[in-house]
Amino acid sequence: MKSRNQGEAITRGGRVLTTAEAARLMGVTASRVRQLIYSRRLRATRFGRDYAVTELDLKQFATTPGPARGRPKKSLRTRE
């Protein structure tokens, strides 16, 4: 994965968090945070072996609506 300039994360605003800290705030595991980073749904900067996520990026991720979940309603499914 292409890493961004390390100074970019700091200048983008907010406190810089590790994946473990971000996971604690989100209520998920650090592994899930890394999955979100790899899928490019959560913006992060690579620092050595770990990633850094700014509070601003975490807030933007939290307010961005995700894909619809669950089974489609009967009225939307096609009849066979």
Could you name the key traits of this structure?
80 residues; three-stranded antiparallel beta sheet; single chain; Multidrug-efflux Transporter Regulator, Chain: A, Domain 2
Structure, described:
It is a single chain. The chain is α+β, with helices and mostly antiparallel strands and 80 residues long. It has one domain (6-63): Multidrug-efflux Transporter Regulator, Chain: A, Domain 2 (Orthogonal Bundle). It has four helices and three strands; from the N terminus they run αβααββα. The protein has a three-stranded antiparallel sheet with strand order 1-3-2. A hairpin with a 2-residue loop joins strand 2 (45-47) and strand 3 (50-54). Helix 2 (19-26) crosses helix 3. The longest helix has 9 residues, at 30-38. The chain starts with 5 loop residues before the first helix and ends in a 17-residue tail after the last helix. The mean pLDDT is 82.
Q: Beta fraction of the residues?
A: 5-15%
Please give the count of helices.
Answer: 4
CATH architecture: Orthogonal Bundle
Total E-strand runs: 3
Summarize the helix and strand pattern as letters: HEHHEEH
Biggest sheet strand line-up: 1-3-2
Query: Which class in CATH terms?
Result: Mainly Alpha
Mean pLDDT: 82
| Poorly predicted residue ranges | none
The profile of the biggest β sheet is:
3 strands, antiparallel
What's the gyration radius in Å?
16 Å
Q: Give the terminus-to-terminus CA distance.
A: 43 Å
Q: Helix- and strand-based class?
A: alpha+beta
Give the domain tally: 1
